[in-house]
């Protein structure tokens, strides 16, 4: 059921609020800056990212502003993931929307002290479900560092399929890094949800 993706994004009145059993996705707020800085300054979290860890709190403030501006332009939906106390524990982002081909990319992060609990999978799953149902996307892609086994497991448990490695696609500092591409089709997601 093709729909006008650009119109669907433009019609959003604000950040969609998504709920899982333990995690909620909401829009970022200025008061989240300390938690966002803690997340993105953690070398463990940033180990496989295409940028270095943050070193200044102002970077987190700037990122929150960028997240809000990107949503205002409907270029990205960059949620913060919060726990039951409304504390930021991660992020989940839909971006690179392609209206003609009805696809987008997804990215995510989670505080390292929350790893191993299934929280990232829960947050990403909520975003995927919303994107396929509300935006009627046909395909969602993700790319990871091929050395990031934890992220690979999350994607595979959600039904993503590895579609190959792009050699030296990103620079982290002066080091060229490979990128492994994953894809998930709406039909794959629907079959998974029915089973």
TrEMBL record:
GO terms for cellular component: cytoplasm. Pfam families: Acetyltransf_3. One of its GO terms (molecular function) is protein-N-terminal-alanine acetyltransferase activity. It comes from the Bacteria. Keywords: Transferase. Residues 23-186 form the N-acetyltransferase domain. Signal peptide: none annotated. PANTHER family: RIBOSOMAL-PROTEIN-SERINE ACETYLTRANSFERASE. This is RimJ/RimL family protein N-acetyltransferase.
């Amino acid at each position: 059921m093709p729909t006008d993706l650009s119109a669907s994004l433009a019609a959003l009145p604000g950040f969609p609020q998504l709920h899982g059993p333990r995690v909620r996705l909401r829009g970022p707020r200025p008061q989240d800056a300390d938690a966002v800085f803690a997340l993105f300054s953690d070398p463990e979290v940033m180990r496989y990212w295409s940028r270095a860890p943050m070193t200044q709190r102002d970077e987190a403030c700037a990122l929150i502003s960028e997240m809000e501006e990107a949503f205002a332009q409907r270029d990205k939906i960059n949620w913060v993931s919060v726990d039951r106390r409304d504390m930021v524990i991660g992020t989940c982002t839909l971006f690179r929307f392609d209206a003609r081909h009805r696809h987008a990319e997804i990215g995510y992060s989670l505080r390292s002290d929350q790893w191993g609990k299934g929280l990232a999978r829960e947050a990403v799953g909520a975003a995927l479900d919303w994107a396929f149902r509300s935006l009627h996307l046909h395909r969602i892609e993700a790319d990871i560092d091929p050395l990031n086994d934890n992220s690979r497991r999350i994607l595979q448990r959600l039904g993503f399929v590895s579609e190959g490695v792009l050699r030296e696609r990103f620079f982290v500092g002066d080091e060229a890094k490979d990128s492994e591409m994953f894809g998930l089709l709406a039909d794959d997601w629907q079959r998974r949800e029915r089973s």
